[in-house]
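re: ur question from earlier - yeah i can do the single chain one, its not a big deal. heres the input i used so u can compare w yours
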Amino acid sequence: MDNVKLHLWCARPDDLIDAEAAQACLQLLSADELSRWRRYKFERSRREYLATHALARTAISHQLGIAPNALRFHVDGFGKPSLVPECGLTFNLSNSSGLVVCIVGESGALGVDVEPFARAESICQVAQKVFSPLELAQLSELSAGHQLQRSLQLWTLKEAYIKARGMGFKLPLTKFSLIFGELNSIRLLLEPELNDDATRWNFCVASHAEHCIALMVENDRSPQLQVWEAHPASASPRPIHSVSAIWNPGA
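and the output i got, formated as tokens:
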């Protein structure tokens, strides 16, 4: 495979506290999306959903040159969306209450996950259930503060992988490992039952706006990453140069 160009888009749900900004995003959504948006009971959840789906339409529109509200999507049985008709463009979404993200590329499967730094402690508390024995062994060697950071990195990377595979939690989290080496290099180790080859993946973990973001891309070379931020999610983007992504080959 050749190097791929990836575009990571970010937006903040709290931008949509402004009624005018929220209305601009609502105008981009389909009837089905509007129906799902209305079913959320809490305003924070509504803003998160609206920001995520408006951002996806804005990002893909920017890539294809098609009006955002003209895009059509199909959601499969695992909840993974794709464009209809297919056009060779792949994307993936992730959301939190403070930041939503969309990764867009032109070839191969993609996965992205975003989590706030503040969630590290709760992830660390369930480490025994979601991390592999190899990951737990490495965690045990770290100080308490570094355990929190590593737990957040591991969780986002694992989420990005299962989202890239498109099978949700059908993939057991304890059957694959992200192993950290010198200079924070990372290897992906997969047990045979997952029916996958680690060498087909490249991945990274980065920080932005007090959030941890993990990316997984199906490509055997380090992608070129451009990061954008839209304020609000329906607005024209501005490039972000402060996000540093060090790519790791799967094996």
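The first strand starts at residue 5 and ends at 11. not sure if urs matches, ping me
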